[in-house]
Amino acid sequence: MAKQYRNIGEEAWKNNVEKVSAELFIFTYGSLVVQLVKDYEDYGAVNKQLDKMGYNIGVRLIDDLLARTGLERCQDLHATAEVISKVGFKMFLNITPSVANWSADSKEFSLILDDNPLNDFCELPPKAIQDGLWYSNVLCGVVRGALEMMQMQTEVTFVRDVLRGDETSEIRVKLERMLDEEVPVGDD
Amino acid sequence: MSTPRPSLMKLDTKASRRSTMLLEHNVIKQRRDKVGLNAFAFLFAEIIRYSQNRVLGIQDLEAKLNELGQRVGVRVFELAMWREKSVHRETRVLQTLVFINTVVWRTLFDKQADSLERSTESEDEYMITDNEPSILKFISVPKEMSSFSPGAFVSGIVEAIVRCCQCPARVTSHVVPAEGMPLRTVILLKFDKEVMDREKRLEAGK
């Protein structure tokens, strides 16, 4: 099953996605984070704002993903995790984080990003590390937003980050509950 | 007896490990080539949305994007200088513009800019045209904001680069649609007086 998703992701990346300079993307993101730090001056607030912006991206990004790959709804969280890591990250950022650290009740898992493009030219000042800035927090928001559109309410957070001196970067995804499909008002 | 090695104040924190690792990266060989254009488009759209909430008016919005672009421009310039085979930093106006038209545009957008022109009305104004700016493809501008050019981001990149080449200018971006090219963007550079005076002096001295 994993192999199938890997192929879908690679196929999408090779044929279905227009490409742009990675460095332009990386610098643009860095410029955004600097702007947020200037605007908010509190790293906790910056984290929240990055998550919020990621959420806004995620709710639209999922449509793009489904349209390009023709994938259907996943049967369980395991499949979801595979799609996120092997298709989602692959076709947008050309990386494949690995899925690991499943919880006993299969409601939580981690995405291990051993290669995060956003980190490429980045170094955090000591104060940012001290105050708990998660530089790539936008990724958490994106995952959360995309999953919410698939009727899953989740909590997505960074737990480790290379920029803070950890060995690797790790995002923890926790399924809180399934959302009922809401029929839009007026659609009787 | 060997002289004792000077002791370095080495902060052996986790973060300093990151710094050493970062400084050892090879800058010249690009480690990473591309990301999806859709990823950039989503990010850029969100940046515009975020900036819109914090400004009043189109001029301010373009100024914010310009500021964001400038941070990118400084770094793009430095990387381009590192990677260029013939390291020759331009300081004359025309050479700088050609540099931007070719090297910078190729690094950022995988193509050369479509034209470079000098304004016939004012001799300190130049225009770089991009017929199909790929990064602006997914930004739709509502009618009531039709004078807004999201290319202000690109103008910020250009402004930072001309400043690095010692030819400071005021750079703005304008959408000038043409036949079959609705997104055609013109980057207008108005060079500072000192730059034009210097150019005149250098020309006269030849």
Structure write-up:
The complex is a heterodimer of chains A (188) and B (206). Chain A is built from six helices and five strands; from the N terminus they run αβαααββααββ. Chain A is an alpha+beta fold. A four-stranded antiparallel beta sheet of chain A has the order 2-3-5-4. In chain A, a hairpin with a 7-residue loop joins strand 2 and strand 3. The longest helix of chain A has 27 residues. The model of chain A has no long low-confidence stretch (mean pLDDT 90). Chain B starts with 13 loop residues before the first helix and ends with a helix. With 206 residues, chain B is α+β, with helices and mostly antiparallel strands. About 2% of the residues of chain B have low confidence. Chain B is built from six helices and five strands, in the order αβαααββαββα. Chain B has a four-stranded antiparallel beta sheet. At the A-B interface, strand 1, helix 2, helix 3 and helix 4 of A face helix 1, strand 1, helix 2, helix 3 and helix 4 of B. Strand 1 of chain A pairs antiparallel with strand 1 of chain B.
What's the gist of this structure?
The complex is a heterodimer of chains A (188) and B (206). By secondary structure, chain A is of the alpha+beta class. Chain A has helices at residues 2-16, 22-40, 43-69, 77-93, 126-130, 137-149; strands at 19-21, 98-100, 108-113, 152-160, 169-178.
Number of helices of chain B: 6
Report helical residue fraction of chain A. Answer: 40-55%
| Unreliable stretches of chain A | none
What would you report as the Rg of chain A, rounded to the nearest angstrom?
17 Å
Mean pLDDT of chain B: 85
Total strands of chain A: 5
Radius of gyration of chain B: 21 Å
Quickly count the helices of chain A.
6
Instruction: Please state how the strands of the largest beta sheet of chain A are arranged side by side.
Output: 2-3-5-4
